[in-house]
Design brief:
The protein is mainly α. The protein is built from 2 helices and no strands.
């Protein structure tokens, strides 16, 4: 059995969150769709993004599906 103290766990989780945020924020700077947004708006979006992984040739959305998410491919 392995044990990790609360502080170490929180630091590890925070490190992953910050890494994902920075990666998403950097990627957003390369996408024209986000070009007219302020840095504050980009920061808000980057902090709300959730990474999803899909299999090759997996259908992500189909025409006519309700628009509940915004996807961009990294």
């Amino acid at each position: 059995m392995w044990l990790i103290d609360r502080q170490t766990f929180r630091e590890a989780v925070e490190e992953v969150i910050i890494k994902d945020y920075n990666e998403n924020r950097k990627c957003m700077e390369t996408i024209r769709f986000f070009a007219n947004l302020s840095n504050e708006q980009k920061d808000i979006i980057a902090s709300a993004l959730i990474t999803q992984n899909f299999y090759k040739n997996q259908t992500i959305i189909q025409e006519g599906d309700p628009g509940s998410s915004l996807y961009y491919i990294k």
